[in-house]
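Re: [ENG-882] Designed sequences occasionally contain unexpected residues at chain ends

Forwarding the minimal case from QA. Structure tokens:
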């Protein structure tokens, strides 16, 4: 199926309008009013939920192995979670996870 250049630009424009409306619905319509406490409480968990949602597919179904789980990536994820949980330090967790990943990739070939 081939799309014309005009159709591609139409889709891009509609995606831009949709993205603007989604953001405007939250920021433009209620951005100048104080939010209820229960909304603020739930918004605190957004970054904590987004990061694992981005990383989990890369750990469980990596494209480099055709979607098969790999011991190096699983080990790095476990080390990252353990360091983050026990030391409560994001930077230490990221650095230790990266060191584990690269070290095991180097060791296992």
């Amino acid at each position: 199926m081939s799309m014309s250049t005009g159709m591609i630009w139409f889709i891009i424009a509609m995606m831009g309008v949709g993205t603007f409306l989604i953001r405007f619905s939250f920021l433009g319509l209620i951005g100048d009013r104080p939010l209820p406490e229960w909304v603020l409480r739930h918004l605190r968990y957004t970054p904590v939920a987004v990061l694992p949602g981005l990383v989990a597919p890369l750990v469980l179904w990596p494209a480099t192995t055709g979607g098969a789980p790999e011991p190096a990536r699983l080990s790095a994820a476990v080390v990252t979670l353990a360091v983050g949980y026990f030391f409560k330090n994001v930077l230490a967790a990221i650095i230790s996870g990266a060191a584990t990943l690269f070290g095991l990739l180097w060791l296992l070939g």
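QA comment: On inspection the terminal residues look reasonable. DSSP finds five helices and no strands in the chain. Proposing we downgrade this to a documentation issue.
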